[in-house]
Design brief:
Layout lengths: L5 E5 L5 H10 L4 E4 L14 H10 L3 E4 L1 H4 L9 E2 L2 E2 L1 H5 L2 H16 L2 E5 L8 H12 L4 E4 L5 E3 H11 L11 H16 L7
Parallel strand pairs: 1-6, 1-7, 2-3, 2-6
Antiparallel strand pairs: 4-5, 7-8
């Protein structure tokens, strides 16, 4: 298994025991919650306060990162046509400071970045946060619900295939194709501001 600097997971609707088991299987010692609103009405065991207690009972820390690394920005300038603009968000000093703090935590703990969506390619934890971490040279692994850990580079290959970015023979270089694939996928799945 490749060495990972940190992990990511989407809690989705899995049972708390299964969630803890997946974290333990990866050797996780801290969960970095990147949800803008760390609350779940349908799955209350994943609400921030409840989750912090559960993790502590299993010897894991709960780290709140939603303010700096959440996918639902408060600033209207960080939306394009009502959709959260991940590239603009990634340039914000608050986001960069959050990534700095996450890198420091990952240097001393086995951190797993957590959000709600099961599929990494449906979530800002992959399309925004993991991308920023990879740009800094950190090796990330996405913990899937079947217990496998998908290296972030493999997730990027799925992203290229999903957005047909590999099919264009006249497309620019690999980094440009990957950036375009990130942009297209983010546009499809990012948070949409409520009209009004």
């Amino acid at each position: 298994m490749p060495a990972f600097d940190l992990f990511s997971i989407g809690h989705s609707n899995i049972a708390a025991e299964r969630f803890i088991g997946l974290l333990r299987g990866a050797g996780v010692t801290a969960v970095a919650d990147v949800r803008s609103t760390p609350f779940s009405r349908r799955f209350p065991w994943f609400s921030g306060k409840n989750l912090a207690v559960t993790l502590a009972q299993h010897g894991m820390a709960y780290l709140a990162y939603g303010e700096a690394l959440g996918g639902r920005p408060h600033d209207a300038a960080l939306y394009r046509d009502g959709v959260a603009d991940y590239e603009a968000m990634a340039r914000q000093p608050e986001f960069q400071a959050g990534i700095d703090r996450l890198c420091a935590d990952a240097a001393r703990l086995r951190v797993c970045v957590m959000c709600a969506e099961r599929e990494p390619l449906d979530c800002h934890r992959c399309l925004l946060v993991a991308r920023a971490l990879a740009a800094r040279g950190l090796a990330g692994g996405h913990i899937l619900h079947d217990g496998t850990i998908e290296p972030h580079q493999a997730t990027e290959r799925r992203l290229l295939a999903l957005t047909n970015a590999d099919d264009d023979l006249f497309a620019p270089g690999q980094s440009e194709r990957l950036a375009a694939a990130y942009r297209r996928r983010a546009r499809a799945v990012a948070y949409r501001a409520k009209a009004g």
